[in-house]
Amino acid sequence: MSPTSATVATGDLALLYLSPRKTWLVRIQEKGSLHTHVGYLQFDSVIGKRYGSQLTTSLGRALWILRPTIEDFVMKGERRTQVIYPKDMGLIVVKMGVSSGFVVLEIGTGSGAMTTVLANLVRPDGRIYSYEMREEFIEIAKKNLGRAGLLDFVTVNLKDAREGVDVEDADAAVIDVGDPWNVLNPVWRALKGGAVISAITPTANQAEKLVIELEKTGFVNIETVEILLRGLEARMGMTRPSSRMIGHTAYLTFARKVFFEQILAND
Ligand SMILES: C[S@@+](CC[C@H](N)C(=O)[O-])C[C@H]1O[C@@H](n2cnc3c(N)ncnc32)[C@H](O)[C@@H]1O
């Protein structure tokens, strides 16, 4: 979790900023230091300073000390799997309405990037029940969650979710596995009526198959989107879009759980 105090304290995880492409997420300890290509910095000189302060390395270069955001924790986490990108996470959590106290089911913990963002939103009284069938990824996810101070709000289960999940009355679900249609029945059973699910699929073929199965399983308001994010290079008199961008991450499919009482003829 990001520190909330205005000044740097021993034990804080802080972001040291040199440039947009060069930042370090470091634990501030009295005896610690950061060694970089622009010189080193002793942490005892930082404790008690205001976040936002300018610091000087041993080689005279300026750094700033900043409070890390949840995006910094996600992007600096160890990744062994494909992770969901912040641009996609934003819409996912808004569509699902995730807020403090929510119980969220997650299928496909992977590196725990999405889990980190979800846990930060549901704390302190909510919980994430996350399923992962490969033990080595659980270790990575727990390490990332622990570093972000969010492990207490997550239960990670080592299980193939196709065999079922031990969750009831969840408020929302995120599915990030290669065959999401194969977990729809257990996910449907685990959710409260009206709860929103989000599924992440890299290919359009997967999205198509998923949507067809969602309709059969008991979901309505099905919507698939792709988010394209392009930066703007703002310079006096020559502002223009960045020539580089991430071309594609995934398609996002959203749907809401319903109970089919009887088949009605709709117009
Ligand atoms: C793309 S990764 C998830 C990444 C994660 N959303 C993140 O942001 O870090 C997909 C993960 O789902 C796991 N997985 C695939 N099928 C599964 C299943 N049926 N049950 C549980 N986990 C599964 C894989 O082992 C893999 O770690």
Mind explaining what this structure looks like?
- With 267 residues, the chain is an alpha/beta fold.
- It folds into 2 domains: 13-68, Vcp-like ATPase, Chain A, domain 2 (Roll); 72-257, 3-Layer(aba) Sandwich (Rossmann fold).
- 23% of the residues lie in helices and 30% in strands.
- The chain is built from 6 helices and 15 strands.
- It has a 7-stranded mixed beta sheet with strand order 9-8-7-10-11-15-12, with helices on both faces.
- α4 links the parallel β8 (127-132) and β9 (154-158).
- It is globular, with a radius of gyration of 21 Å.
- The protein starts with 12 loop residues before the first strand and ends in a 10-residue tail after the last strand.
- Residues 81-84, 107-108, 110-114, 131-134, 137, 160-162, 176-177, 183 line the site of S-adenosylmethionine.
As residue ranges, the low-confidence spans are none
Q: Helix and strand succession? A: EEEEEEHHEHEHEEHEHEEEE
CATH superfamily descriptor of the largest domain: Vaccinia Virus protein VP39
> Could you tell me the number of beta strands?
15
Averaged pLDDT: 96
